[in-house]
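Need tokens for this chain, all 384 residues.
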Amino acid sequence: MKKIYVLIIVLLLMNIAKAQWVLTSLDSSYIRALAIKGDTIFAGINGGGVFLSTNNGTSWTAVNNGLTNLNIYSLAICGTNIFAGTAGGGVFLSTNNGTSWTPLNNGLTNLYIYPFAVSGTNLFAGSTNEVFISPNNGANWYADGLTGKVVQTLAVVDSNLFAGTWGSGVFLSTNNGTSWTAVNTGLTNTQVGAFATSGNNIFVGTNGGGVFLSTNNGMSWTAKNNGLTDLYIYSLAISGSNIFIGTNGSGMFLSTNNGDNWTAVNNGLTDMFMFSLAISETNIYAGGVISGVWRRSISDILGITENNLINISIYPNPTSDNLTIETTSAKEQKLEIFNLIGQTVYTSAITKKAVVKTGAFASGVYFIKLSTDKETVVKKFVKE
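Here are the structure tokens for all 384 residues:
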């Protein structure tokens, strides 16, 4: 019996050791922007240009051919087009996955480009004193109606365009930027540096006021800072019902209940200044100010850990229509299947064997959880 206890403790310790942030091989400082296109991760470095990784950050390659300004402040992906915004060099476009870049500054009167946003066929770019719009993939730019503001972040919700400014709060345009209206009711800090949206929920991160939420298209804002030990927010990202924020000195926080509560998720993280975030199907990537790009599994952050304390077989994996689950346990077990964002998509009971019809499941990664009153096992499978 002692040997079994020792084995369980070792397995738990192994899981704890793996449950942490990992600094990828791109250890260059000040990652201003991150973007994901399929299996490729792009990182924009202030002073270092653009790098890409096709293996989850294990290795990176500089892709700066044609970039005459390496101070990358923003990245945006629209179909096969990758846009890079620079500090002083304007906008650059790559149509070949970063292999080469072409400047697209026709009509730009300000070459310091902070954020991008895409709405339909329109591309928006925010600068240090106005917003620009391009209706033709950056070939031509036109000054929009919001001028005299330092635009730090942009977001699109349905047909509405939001601009977060440094010192003047949030502005809303319902006509592609022709006119703007300040929407700051309840916003007690007007230095807005980050947006994230999920359905009708709009979150903003501020410089000293923490996180605010609007559920009515920006007409009013409510502070959502319970559990936050740092109110200086650098970055925001949403994956399903999970909201991640990067702070200016206290690392990463997670909320799983719409911002009502926040929990620090910093295990293994040595850089507490997180300027940029990007989320893939399975991982979250964070760009540090003094280190580089960090990676962590979303399922790990949420406490979803695969283990082998019950003998279980699942096949075929990946699957398309049917998934067979077999276990050697003679006891009835509770069967749950949930997706990567923690939503339960299937529940049942199983004794030794079950076949689950997965044809209606969306493509992606899922977890099977089998549990009795004494044991629990979690396994991962992929729905094609």
